[in-house]
Amino acid sequence: MPNVDDEPAPTRVTLTRDGPILIEGPVEVVLDDGRVVRSDRFVVAVCACRRSRKYPWCDTSHRRRGGSPAARRA
């Protein structure tokens, strides 16, 4: 019988209404061109609006330009 304590904890992903996607790290992100980027932080903010100058990582650009595109449509 498998031991429940031996199972890895699931990765927590938090979707925010007007900001980034928060992922418990460390994480590797595969970009659309096939490159892989990695962050060893304990929580990683992934850009959802594509405005970040540090894409795929969020640099809070969505705050300076009036929220995310999804927030403006709502």
Overview of the molecule:
- With 74 residues, the chain is an alpha+beta fold.
- The protein has two helices and five strands, in the order E-E-E-E-E-H-H.
- It has helices at residues 61-64, 69-73, and strands at residues 13-15, 21-24, 27-30, 36-39, 43-46.
- The strands form two sheets. The protein has a three-stranded antiparallel beta sheet with strand order 1-2-5, with no helix packed on it.
- A hairpin with a 5-residue loop joins strand 1 and strand 2 (21-24).
- The N and C termini lie far apart (49 Å).
- The mean pLDDT is 84.
Q: What count of helical segments does DSSP give?
A: 2
Q: What is the H/E order? A: EEEEEHH
Fraction of helical residues: 10-25%
Global outline: globular
Structural class by SSE content: alpha+beta
Largest sheet: 3 strands, antiparallel
Quick structural gist:
This protein is an alpha+beta fold and 74 residues long. It contains two helices and five strands; from the N terminus they run βββββαα. Strand 1 and strand 2 form a beta hairpin.
